[in-house]
Amino acid sequence: MPHHDPRGNRPGLALLLTTLLLLPVAASQALANPKAAPQVALQVVLDIEESLIRASAQIEPAAGDAADHFLFDLSSDLTVIMAYVTEEGRRPDLTQQAVHVPLPHHQDVQRYKLRIPAGIEEPLVVIVYEGTLADDVEAGEIEGQVHNFSVQAHISERGVFLSDNSYWAPNPVDAHGSHPLCDYEVTVHGEAGWVFVATGDPIRETDEGDLGPCDHWRTPRPTDGVALAGNRLGTLSGVSDSGVEIVVHTSEGNARLAPMFLGAVKEYLALYEPLIGPYPYRRFTIMENFFSSGFAYPGFTLMDGRVLGMGPRALMPGLLDHEMLHAWWGNGVYVSPEDGNWCEAITSHHANMSRYGLQGEEERSQDYRRGNLMKLAADPALDAADGPALDRFGRDPACDRYVGYDKGALVFHMIRQALGDEAYWAGVKRFAADYLGKHATWDDLATSLDPEDEHGIATLVEQFVRRPGAPALAATRFVAGEDGLVLDIDAGHGDWSFDLPVRLHLKDGGHRDVTIEYPEQHTIAGDPATVTHLEIDPTFDVYRLMPANQVLPTINNTLAEGLHFVVGEERPEAADQFIARYPEATHSPQPVSDRNLFILGETAAGAVSKALALASNPVAVGDGWFEVDGKRYDKPTQAMLHSFRHPDESGRYATLFVSNGEVGWQKLRLVTHYRRDTTIVWEDGEVITRLVHEPDRRVPLGFAKSPEKPSYD
Ligand SMILES: [Zn+2]
């Protein structure tokens, strides 16, 4: 360990050493007994101009931990100035030193060991440390990506961000070599004019009704880390109907939007608390962040200023609601290190997928589910039958985000369908109540949701969480039989068993929905004379791999694999920048076969005009105009993104981007955000038309798969 003079001339150090002398009493009063979890009390002095942190940690190890030593991990960017183990009323031995323990494969973290002197029954570990924390913000800002994950610890005039897994605070190590959940208390000594927020609840020494910024925070129950953020921001506060404090810290530029966000949080709490139980912290803070993020911590979220600046669009499902729900899932109930990450799945189900439905707009939730299935259809490798299963998400980097979030959300939807709404939400509430402040596995979830195993939830988890891949569910036969309608379905691979909704389309124009037990049931009761078609899973309730002929064309399909840009020699810089994002792709002024085509601009469109016209959703493009869905757009501020199945190339897709004038090209860098639509038209930068080209997914009565007729399109 490099030598440091602990009494050198360092601003803040005197303050720390003074608070240290006062703290042992304060800490043991403040923190709960008995100590099931380690108690960590932090005094943090920030020198923002110098990107410096100086801090002291006082840790009471959990009862039952090793009696002769204490292990902790700390960021390699930080230096221990002083560390000793003492107990109340005992004179500390300041000559004690923390020794390094080799920690293979970890460059960013150092492990330290402190001897616990003989005779100490209730050890109090004191660690004083300092260092510069200045992760490069720009390096992690990647065009088209929502989160900058490479910033973990940063202190500067731009802002303070110390993430809960950056080891900016000493992290106790238990007898198994893991990091246990801990109770944390943080006191920040920042700078005038700055507001801070840390993991947990605000602690106010005096005024109970104070909804303002706070420098002192404590977790109401053990958490799996401690985060701290701060900046020069304004404050708007309110209280939900249920009594939760809501605080919004924004920059001056976004201050006018703060009331909208505050109102949205009130609305979300009113929607979700009756379903999943009381919000698990006293306060929910939204803090504007100084880099790309939508990060959730216990009691607060850090949202990119540019996302907040989107105004009402920042309130679409999956943004603020998602971050708030992590207060329960992931920051209230913790993902067990023994199992995969279930918290993104349940959070995405409750927010991204289902919020509109819970607010009475089920059709929009249905569209979202369809979108999830389309993503898989566009790129089945996202969840291959020999790839990692959902229970590997968060543990195996090969497990795609799609599996963790999108498949996961649909799996929860299937669970909810199997249980029915009442039992589902009662089970979710039970799960939160039983596991807040604890780790939970997928099996814990299944047991909370279906305690008597009456609804087959454990079986669903077995098939869709523990096993990779999706059933294909293609109808191979739909014919009139003696006792009704005979239906055969091929799942493609594996053994599957679940309730499958199907829709019978009737001659009178109506329909009848039935649920069959797949794969046992082959006959559906009904009079064949009244039925024209069958549709499998008409409202997208089952996680499955859609047949290619049922896919709606989007940019996802085009970008999936084997991309070729059709682009003229003369082209705007925006086109070059976009092409540069796909180093694997080829490009030329003419189309090539057996590739997905990305057609950029009017000249390129001319080279594929036949395919544009012959597609099942045709468009036409000319000099300064384009035509789609029978409508002509000829204003210079209009631009279009349009995807279609290639009419001559089986299994291939194409996407066209055209702009009538120069200004529309600015939209090209954002096109990957429109993954659920077939066609988008912009005018003056705003979306004015949004189309989804729905293929016919009905199977005609009398269909039987044969070598000549392998599918029904
Ligand atoms: Zn999330």
Main features:
7-stranded mixed sheet; Neutral Protease, domain 2; alpha+beta; disordered N terminus; 22% helix; Immunoglobulin-like; 713 residues; binds zinc ion
What does this structure look like?
With 713 residues, the protein is an alpha+beta fold. Among the domains are: 1-133 and 168-180, Immunoglobulin-like (Sandwich), CATH 2.60.40; 334-464, Orthogonal Bundle (Neutral Protease, domain 2), CATH 1.10.390.10; 474-550; 555-691, 2-Layer Sandwich (Chitobiase, domain 2), CATH 3.30.379. The longest helix has 19 residues, at 258-276. The chain is globular, with a radius of gyration of 29 Å. Zinc ion is lined by residues 322, 326, 344, 347.
